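Q: Convert this sequence to structure tokens.
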Amino acid sequence: MLRVVVDSVLTYSRSAYPREGILLLRGRSKKGDVRVESVVIPPMATHGDGFSSFSWNLMPIDLTFIGVAHSHPSGYAVPSQQDLLHMMGKIMVIMGYPYTDESCIKVYDIHGKPLTFQISEGSPDSSSSDGRNSMED
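A:
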């Protein structure tokens, strides 16, 4: 995950607090490696107390969307049953309050299994191996 993405999801979560915030993740996936390169604020997103949502119908077709990130103002950064039911893409990123640093970020696969992640200082169009985001079991 690029450092700029980490900074973006944490900043967005802080600005949405005490409500949940939601973002779309853009990037690439190849042979089990997922590289998160940027975030997109979904149009007409709803940020509520204990939930956040948006309509995929308002989104253009874009094969670079690889997952969804949302905040948990409670600080408990574990996917709920609702999170798993509405999971889209390859990964789900949950940011738990207080949104101070990468220790507040958890990454999960489509089944809710925790994944490890690495932070890269690379740029979105960098293809070097140290720019990859290896999210593995």
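The CA atoms of residues 84 and 120 lie 27 Å apart.
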